[in-house]
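Usage example:
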Amino acid sequence: EVQLVESGGGLVQPGGSLRLSCAASEFTVSSYYMTWVRQAPGKGLEWVSIIYSGGTIYYADSVKGRFTISRDNSKNTVYLQMNSLRVEDTAVYYCARVANWAIGYWGQGTLVTVSS
Amino acid sequence: DIVMTQTPLSLSVTPGQPASISCKSSQSLLHSDGKTYLYWYLQKPGQSPQLLIYEVSNGFSGVPDRFSGSGSGTNFTLKISRVEAEDVGVYYCMQNLQVPWTFGQGTKVEIK
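Running the assembly step on the lines above writes:
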């Protein structure tokens, strides 16, 4: 069964950094497009970033220049390095697998809280 | 950016009755490859979102056939033929014709 397990969330002060991890099982992350979607408390879904199987990367304007998506094929894991964090980055961050352009599998999410 | 607008934002439905959610995009989601990149997701309380419908009208694996999608261009609809208690949650439409991928605001469905 396809599984995505996020980790790395927590409480961080404004201006700080966190690295989220998304460990995948039963498929190879390098063969799929992998994306991050976030959800602020009580709010809707917001797309954050995507890495294509070929390595092309895109970001939402709200995180461009601060967040970096990457993957480690040997660990079958996708990462989201988040720097210069802001209060408005507080959210549950979901890692998800994209197939035929559909987000078919989602992780359980990891909560990032940016607060002083 | 493509703006996705859902209506209504909330819906209270009697079990067994139909329900319908509209999603409008600020520009056509029809790609030159002939596909329309419009998706529907359901986020049940306390859970991660789950895919219901892809490319306007195709049901994802395991999705009950009471869920159906329709539409074209900029106007799309998700219909539930007979709402069941397990259908409660927030429904989102999403486009990925172009980056950034964008979601509608969500429609909260509750049972009367």
